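To: structure desk
From: M.T.
Subject: fold request, one chain
Message: Could you run this one when you get a chance? Sequence is below, nothing fancy, just the single chain.
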Amino acid sequence: MNCHMKFKIIWACLGISAGILAGGTFAAQYKNYVAALVGFFSSICAGYLLYIHISYHKRTFHSWPQQKITFVIVINWILAALGLIGMVISLVIGAIKHQTLTHDGLMNTNWWIVAVWCWMTFKWTMMSAIYTRQYAKKVQSQSIEPLP
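Reply: Done. Structure tokens follow.
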């Protein structure tokens, strides 16, 4: 396994652990269930990116039909768009409510934190779409070799 692939796998693992840890913390300590839910979902998205990297590395990606590749790309772009929309909505709500980043008492939902985790969801799903497309192009170029 080359260094670049190791980095991609470690990066996705960090995303999984960050989402799980943040989601648990926001739910248990701050009662910010919206941020916890989005954090956990972000962790799932990072997990799917890890699955894509490992599938490509172990060459199981090479047997994916084109319909599955297209489906994965489209779903991830839709989720990325929803993540961006969620981030903007969270920022607007946080500004309207005059929230700060500090924890004052038992504030249930800090929308600035929700915006951060919507951005993280956007990042993981966008990366999944991009890498799926990139890996599909590499597999296709490897399977079509010119005749001597």
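Reply (cont.): The chain has one domain: 3-140. Let me know if you need anything else for the meeting.
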